[in-house]
Structure formats: structure tokens, C-alpha cells
Amino acid sequence: MTDSLLVDRAEGVVTLTFNRPDALNALTDDLKVAFRDQLAALSADPTCRAIVLTGAGRAFCVGQDLREHVENLKSGDPLATVREHYNPIAATLAAMPKPVVAAVRGTAAGAGASLAFLADFRVGGPGTSFTMAFAGIGLSSDTGASLTLPRLVGHAKATEMLMLGTKVKGEEAQRAGLLGTFVENDDDVLPTAQKLAARLAEGPTVAYAYIKRTLSAAEHIPLSETLELEAEAQARCGQTADHCGAVEAFVAKEPIVFEGR
Ligand code: T3D
């Protein structure tokens, strides 16, 4: 385990903090490996029912550590890290069966922004900014942003952000669709995200997994297949203790409590 990734557990919520504040939480190989391993472990951990991603200090994450990248450029295959690190991280995050909330305090740049776009919810404040820094250093986009960014802001705005590096900040980020929740004070970003995650951690975890999977699949398949996927999902959810208990509690006019199973 590396100090550059902090892992904090509270009830069913696990908060993962990129912890390289002096480098604005730029991603080194060590940090990428630790992050990917944590995501894989949390994916299979039934005690984790929601995840918060955040960054220490004044940034969320500014993507690839360019100091390390300079060294990689001098030796071997400089861009192998996309296949080796960024793609597995993006795939694991996209397939995460639990809700993921990004607490985007400060700057999210390059692959750091891409990671935030892979979350299910984004919370930010006046100091939040998203910059697709790739073209600024002569690169294209990675970590799934070619799919997730246009999904959030539309093709035209995504093109502008990727090609011109247009920074989208604060309330404007909310209007553009990059932030689901905007808070007036940057200090409230993380607590607000954790409160949302705590609410999600008390929800029907199995149903959430199917909602995520079906929403994602439905973008690429015809309606007939979507209907079949929905039917399979409902059949599975219909067998959960959460569903049976919820219906019984509703009929008995009692509070509904979800245990995530
Ligand atoms: O093979 C591959 O790896 C390809 C994969 C690529 C994925 C990517 O993510 S590419 C995009 C990489 N990220 C960037 O290009 C962003 C670079 N950073 C910036 O443009 C600026 O730092 C910001 C606009 C984000 C913030 O500017 P500002 O003025 O608020 O802060 P600063 O002074 O530039 O940075 C503060 C410190 O963080 C500074 O260190 P120092 O001088 O105090 O020791 C700076 O060097 C460091 N820092 C910022 N970004 C990075 C970084 N260190 C390493 N890597 C960084 N990406």
C-alpha cells in the first residue's frame, strides 16, 4: 500500500483520497496500481456499499504525473501506461457495481477529469474546474473521456473542451452537465458527497448494480435487448431480501430498511 492513496471507511461508505497534494494529486504508477487494486477489492467487498473519490489539498487530480512521464518518454514505450494502467482503471470503475460519488474540490485535469466522469455522481463548488489538458501537451484523450464527456455535455462541447482545452468551472460546470450537485462553499464539497454516498449506502445495493449495468448497456443495444436485460434484472432484484422486505414493510406501513442483499 502507498501513502499516495488514503482509504477511509465509515459505515458502508469507503472514501478513496488521492494524496499527493504538492503535485495536485498527479497520478504516478504507484498511485495508479494502488487505486486499481483498491477498486477491484471494493468491487467484491459486500461491506462497501458506496464509494467516494476525492483529492487532498486544492485539487481533485491533474491526471498523469508529468515528471514521471518525462522519465518514461526517455525509456521504452512511453504510452504503454494507457493500456497497462488507465484502461484497467477505467474498466474497473465503469463496471463498479456500487454507486461512486466524485467529490471534485478544485482542479480535475486530463485523466483526473476522466476519472471524475466515470463516477455516477459529481459534487463540486466554486473552485471546481474541469480541464481536458491532453491536447495542451499534444495528446488525444484517454481513460474513457471520449465516451463519458460527450455523454455529459454533448459532442460539440466535448470537442471544444478536448481540442481547445476550455476550462469549465463551478456553476458553469453544473449548467454544462459536468456537476450534478453544486455547493456554495468548497469546504462543503466532500461532506456533501459523503452524505450522498451514505444515503446510497443505505439503499438497495443489488438494484443499484443492475440499474448501472442496464443504463450503460442500453446505450449500445436495441430496445428489444434492453427490455430483455430489464426483465432479467427485475427477476434477480425480485429475489433479493431487500425487495421482499421493502414490499412487506410497505404493505405493513413500516419503515423500509435495505441491507444491501
Ligand atoms: O502515457 C501516458 O501517461 C499518457 C496519459 C496521459 C493522461 C493525462 O492525464 S495527460 C494530462 C496530464 N496533466 C496535465 O497536463 C496538467 C498539467 N498541470 C497543469 O496544467 C497545471 O498544473 C494546472 C492547470 C492543473 C494547475 O495550475 P496551477 O497554476 O494552479 O498549479 P501549478 O503551479 O501548475 O502546479 C502546482 C504543482 O503541481 C507544481 O509543482 P511545484 O512546482 O510546486 O513543485 C506542478 O509542477 C505540479 N503539477 C501540476 N500538474 C502536474 C504536476 N506535477 C506532475 N504532473 C502533473 N500533471
Which key terms come to mind for this protein?
alpha/beta; 2-enoyl-CoA Hydratase, Chain A, domain 1; globular; 2 domains; Lyase 2-enoyl-coa Hydratase, Chain  A, domain 2; binds ligand T3D; four-stranded mixed sheet
Give structural notes.
With 261 residues, the protein is an alpha/beta fold. The chain folds into 2 domains: 5-201, 2-enoyl-CoA Hydratase, Chain A, domain 1 (Alpha-Beta Complex), CATH 3.90.226; 205-251, Lyase 2-enoyl-coa Hydratase, Chain  A, domain 2. It contains 11 helices and 10 strands. The chain has helices at 29-43, 66-74, 80-94, 111-118, 145-153, 155-164, 170-176, 189-201, 205-218, 223-238, 241-251; strands spanning 5-10, 13-18, 50-55, 59-61, 100-104, 107-109, 121-124, 129-131, 168-169, 181-182. The strands form 2 sheets. It has a 6-stranded mixed beta sheet with strand order 1-2-3-5-7-10, sandwiched between helices. Strands 4-6-8-9 form a 4-stranded mixed beta sheet. Helix 1 (29-43) runs parallel beside helix 3, helix 4 (111-118) packs across helix 5 (145-153) and helix 9 packs antiparallel against helix 10. The longest helix has 16 residues, at 223-238. The radius of gyration is 19 Å and the shape is globular. The two termini are 30 Å apart. The model has no long low-confidence stretch (mean pLDDT 96). Ligand T3D binds at residues 23-24, 26, 62-67, 69, 78-79, 81-82, 107, 109-111, 133-134, 136-137, 139, 142.
